[in-house]
Amino acid sequence: MPIKIPQHLPAKEILEKENIFIMDDSRAAQQDIRPLNILILNLMPEKEKTERQLLRLLGNTPLQVNITFLKTATYDSKNTSQYHLEEFYLTFAEVKEKKYDGMIITGAPIELMEFEEVHYWNELKEILDWTERNVTSALHICWGAQAALYHHFGINKYTLPRKCSGVFSHRVLDHTEKLLRGFDDEFFAPHSRNTDISEETLESHPELKLLASSEEAGALIISSRDSRKIMITGHLEYEATTLAEEYMRDKEKGIGIEMPENYFPQDDPEKNPTNRWRSHAHLFFSNWLNYYVYQETPYEWD
């Protein structure tokens, strides 16, 4: 949250140059505070697990955050009970007349399919277009990020020779970006995907900014120039054991998959992995909620 200081305090200029978030008396006097309304389109198979992961991070704020869960109407989840979906989820038809301060579109384990082959692709395109008029800031995760880059910016994914799975070191490319405020120069983040986006294509696109990247895992955090669309190709929301659960699940299915990189201690799946990205996950979601949602959303939507 911002530091409120007198408008003409000499330290103000220095703090602003250091990228410290401050607010002077005149702006503070004009601020009204209300709960933030966040819509989550949960495309992951194990929806209850994803709910827990995201809510843990969205709850780390002094602001009241109202959450609405959204499901697709054109595809029924096979891994979540119908009772849970009917009790806690709405469809797009039930929310499209409303305005939301922020929205999260999750990943989905379908990245090897062409976008147009996805059962709910037409529905998702309608939702993505709707966010431009009805959502202050939209955060897209993993396949959701690839879908947004394809639909909004015409950038397609490509298949990797082998799955990108593990915990990788990333570097911050723009220290002035508010989304990365407080980040270390290097930080860890998990990835779990079979496809990727060309960094060269991202960097050359006039409407996009590449904010964080890894030599091993490629682009991680991308933003539109107006900061209303955030794309993250990894999974900062993952718990310490999520990659292990995915690895064991795929092994049991007989899928030829390699062990997640830089993850198990001494590359021993019998040893419990440690979470090396938790602090940056909290920081990322806190920055998004504060700078891109709370500070930008109107008090009353017109």
Automatic annotation (TrEMBL):
The record marks E111 as: Important for acyl-CoA specificity. Pathway: Amino-acid biosynthesis; L-methionine biosynthesis via de novo pathway; O-acetyl-L-homoserine from L-homoserine: step 1/1. It catalyses: L-homoserine + acetyl-CoA = O-acetyl-L-homoserine + CoA. Pfam families: HTS. Signal peptide: none annotated. The active site is at C142 (acyl-thioester intermediate), H235 (proton acceptor), E237. It is an enzyme of class 2 (transferase). It is found in: Cytoplasm. One of its GO terms (molecular function) is homoserine O-succinyltransferase activity. The record marks S192 as: Important for substrate specificity. Substrate binds at K163, S192, R249. Keywords: Acyltransferase, Amino-acid biosynthesis, Cytoplasm, Methionine biosynthesis, Transferase. Its EC number is 2.3.1.31. Belongs to the MetA family. Transfers an acetyl group from acetyl-CoA to L-homoserine, forming acetyl-L-homoserine. This is Homoserine O-acetyltransferase. It comes from Mesobacillus jeotgali.
